[in-house]
Design a protein that fits this description.
Elements: H1 17-22, H2 29-37, H3 39-42, H4 46-56, H5 64-68, H6 75-89, H7 95-106, H8 117-126, E1 146-148, H9 151-156, H10 161-173, E2 178-180, H11 190-194, H12 198-214, E3 219-222, H13 225-234, E4 242-245, H14 246-253, E5 266-268, H15 272-277, H16 282-290, E6 295-297, H17 309-312, H18 314-328, E7 334-337, H19 340-348, E8 353-355, H20 356-365
Parallel strand pairs: 1-2, 1-3, 3-4, 5-6, 5-7, 7-8
Helix pairs in contact: 10-20, 14-16
């Protein structure tokens, strides 16, 4: 197995946000990999084996360990496989994940809410402001060049409303031919993937693929890096269908933009899944530069909101973002990002944050609101 190639050099330890927060070796990628290498001994000790299974979920899946590994160990793949094995071997230890699995199986979203509400929440807020937005919701027979995949957070969380508004305003101003999946959108399956349950995600993925093909979409866009991973990698769309992050689409469509009337200090946070796993690095910065936005680069570190950590160990998740805010001296600065999960994490830490598309929409509308 690939983890046997680990030479325990420790490069990953210094970059791991979980180790940074706790300071104990077993929480680090090297520590977990070492435990895997001596698994035969661990399995004889039931309590130690139980502790190891718990350790697997005390990880943000940020990918810094895989990125730095000189031995070319695909640690994200290793931990993904081990999570699936752990849940199958000892499901009684993961009852807190059982509710999530049931919500996804029964209601096709992480909140267990009625799928019909996927469009209702934001439609009620935006119909007056964006005339005709209701006509953008998919139903059988409708087609469009672009399908917008919102994801569970963007569909159901009121904290994402400003981003949704800005996304739709920008699409309208740029005359993009688009549809939103609405009630026909099922979760992309990323939470199940993070649980190691790709089989459970198959039903969700196959449904989404069917809807996208029915709409004859030539491209699918999403604001969520987790959704981007799943749709581009695991939905098996036709080769001529592009899957893009919203910053990629807007950077492509806009050679120039109006200048943004900046009155605050900005710091830019790279979402881990977008930057490392999807390799989307230049487009967010390109959009900001086109608008003349000045910003400080933040360290390429995790906010603590990935890998299901907010569910599996919320205290650890909170500690990671608190450490990050202190190190970066965020204070009164506004954190710019382009990921709904990162946004939730910053808001939860009482930090001001904005998605790049909010800045773009305001620039296109002629000023800051």
């Amino acid at each position: 197995m690939s983890y046997d190639r680990c030479v325990r050099c420790g490069s990953c330890v210094l970059l791991c946000p979980v180790f940074d927060a706790i300071g104990e070796e077993q929480y680090s990628p090297r520590g977990k990999t070492y435990l895997l290498q001596v698994m035969d001994l661990i399995e004889e000790d039931k309590e130690l084996a139980k502790e190891f299974r718990k350790l697997l979920f005390q990880c943000t899946f940020c990918g810094r360990c895989s990125e730095i590994c000189a031995s070319d160990v695909d640690l994200l793949k290793v931990f993904h496989e081990q999570r699936g094995k752990a849940v199958n071997e000892a499901p009684e230890e993961f009852e807190y994940l059982d509710a999530l699995g049931k919500s996804l199986a029964n209601m096709m979203n992480i909140y267990g809410l009625d799928p019909e509400d996927r469009a209702e929440f934001w439609l009620d807020e935006l119909e007056d402001e964006i005339p005709g937005i209701a006509d953008r919701v998919y139903e059988e027979g409708k087609t469009a060049d672009t399908m917008v995949f919102l994801g569970c957070l963007m569909s159901f969380r009121a904290s994402q409303m400003d981003v949704l508004r800005s996304l739709f305003v920008t699409l309208e101003k740029l005359d993009v031919d688009y549809l939103v999946m609405g009630a026909e959108e099922f979760c992309c399956g990323h939470p199940l993937h993070l649980m190691g349950d790709d089989d459970g995600a198959t039903k969700l993925r196959e449904h989404n693929k069917k809807v996208m093909e029915s709409a004859k979409a030539k491209r699918v866009i999403t604001c969520c890096p987790g959704c981007l991973i799943q749709i581009s990698t695991n939905h098996n769309l036709k080769e001529d269908v592009e899957v893009l992050h919203h910053t990629q689409l807007f950077d492509r469509l806009l050679e120039t933009t109006p200048k943004y009337k900046q009155e605050e200090e900005f710091s830019y946070h790279d979402p881990c899944e977008l930057h490392r796993i999807c390799n989307v690095k230049t487009e967010p910065r390109s959009l900001l530069n086109k608008m003349g936005v000045e910003f400080e680069e933040m360290d390429l570190s995790c906010c603590g909101g990935g890998g299901l950590l907010r569910m599996t160990d919320p205290d650890l998740s909170d500690k990671i973002i608190q450490i990050r805010a202190q190190k970066e001296r965020l204070g009164d600065k506004v954190v710019l990002t382009c990921c709904p999960s990162c946004r939730e994490q910053f808001l939860g830490a009482n930090l001001r944050t904005r998605d790049i598309v909010e800045i773009l929409a305001e620039a296109l509308e002629g000023g800051e609101k």
